[in-house]
Amino acid sequence: MDANTFVLFGATGDLAKRKIYPALFNLFIDGKLPELFSVIGLGRRAWSDDTFKANIEQSLHSFSRREVKDPEAVKKFLGFFRYHVLDVDRTEDYQSLLQIIEQREQSLSLTPNRLFYLSVGPELFETIASHIQNSGLGDTTGWKRLVIEKPFGRDLQSARDFNEQLAKSFAEEEIFRIDHYLGKPMVQKLEVLQRTNPVIQASWNNRYIANVQITASETVGVEERAGYYDHSGALRDMFQNHMLQLLMMLAGHLPKSDDSEQVRLKKRHVMQSLEPLLPQNVSSQVIRGQYKQGAIQGNPVIGYKDEAGIPQDSQNETFIAAKLQIDDQFWRGIPFYIRTGKRMKEKATRIVIEFKEPIKQTGSTASAHTPNLLVFEISPNEGIYLRLNTEDAAQNQDLTKVLIGTHKSGSEVPEAYENLIYDALRGDSSFFAHWDEVELAWKWVQPIQEAFAANEVPLYEYEAGGFGPQAAHDLLAEDGFEWWFDQEHAEASSAPAQVSRQDKEPSLVK
Ligand code: NAP
Questions:
Q1: Predicted structure pTM score
Q2: 40 CB contacts (<8 Å, ≥6 apart)?
Q3: CA 96 to CA 98: how far, in whole Å?
Q4: 43 CA from centroid of ligand 1 (Å)
Q5: Ligand 1 atom 41, closest CA
Q6: Which of 10, 156, 392, 436 can bridge 442 by disulfide, Cβ–Cβ 3.0-4.6 Å?
């Protein structure tokens, strides 16, 4: 890995504390940081280097997935860091930043490679990018990279305007847009699983697959983010980015190689092949919902409109489900169902592939068989399960289900930010959101945004702690399908004194 300087805007903020320092520390422990490395943290707060380092150390103790045990390792790690006060609007602060970076590059014999990580609100991105350009910070004989966090615009036009501004200071291949779902290890494995397993390759099409279901459900409500969330909703906050990125990673077919350009082309192909949503079809293909009061794990919770900072007449969606179709030779005719919501029964991100049922098709009378399923558990736990039918000798040769799979609990799995920061340091943009995908995703959701804004789609209330509005279940029932595992979770959580689902292995065995 090239020696470089990691310039962190927003070094005093929440994301840096909870994700970035713990991720850098775990990379350091794994020997995945360059030997020659310098981090310059930036913020308006008048911190000294020592205060900065004390805050970093505290964040490691609070948020690192590994226990922080070795004081020598911590000391060596903290040696990478320096702090500098910078207000993004003050030109002179960038000049002094440039001097500090150059001094460190000289004293540590660092090649002048610079990674600028913007862990600040998106309203500051354009100002920072242009100052990097104008101050000479970006004018280096080494490489320069820009890492940014979503949101990348609010709609198609604002995303295009925003991208145009960034493009004045950074080339597309220098921009690394973080979508942290792409950093989740199971999502990163989807492509390898396809590429290296002929069984998956052979069945990855409309001949064998009946439907695909992608779910990302949260048990939390709006939390402290009312101001942001009530103007964003599930469509902008989750669907346009994380959910469509999961779809692209899953539905893309094998690139000739796994380099980042091929991955980008593959993802773009999926978005370009997505059947456009006609305005008159939005209300039949898209379901929106808002949680009302209910109970999460037995504890009563209030409804969305009663949350602090949410207006009583809010029409904002906290749930969205949609049916999508990909019009290419592999997927034509196969429905992809996507749903995401807050205050749902369980916290889980999962993809379920339901296979067609040849037994049913040949008119067998066997009663107990169910479709084969391939399940990718993405988070909080990680697993892959294949559900097959077999014979149960003890029960008069009736068919029974058998589940084959692997399972890891959340604490064993590297954090998404570790993978993403590592890739950005190496310059590998495979698991980042590229501009053409972002633009195509905004384009695809535009009719939904317009229909929601014009109130042309019913806003269904759903009980907190459930599985979303009934209409989201009807969406699949109309095609003869149902959301997998909702029933199992409902039964598991109502059973008295049962082992927590997350402690079982595999977690989906009924
Ligand atoms: P935050 O806690 O509010 O921190 C904001 C940071 O920006 C602080 O370090 C602040 O430093 C700095 N800042 C604000 N105005 C500045 C200015 N004029 N000049 C220089 N520095 C300024 O926000 P956050 O939660 O860390 O979020 C940062 C970004 O990550 C946002 O884009 C957010 O959407 C995204 N994100 C956050 C999370 C998360 O879990 N927190 C998750 C995903 C994405 P001073 O106060 O010292 O000036």
A1: 0.92
A2: 5, 6, 7, 8, 81, 82, 83, 84, 97, 100, 101, 104
A3: 5
A4: 9
A5: 15
A6: 156
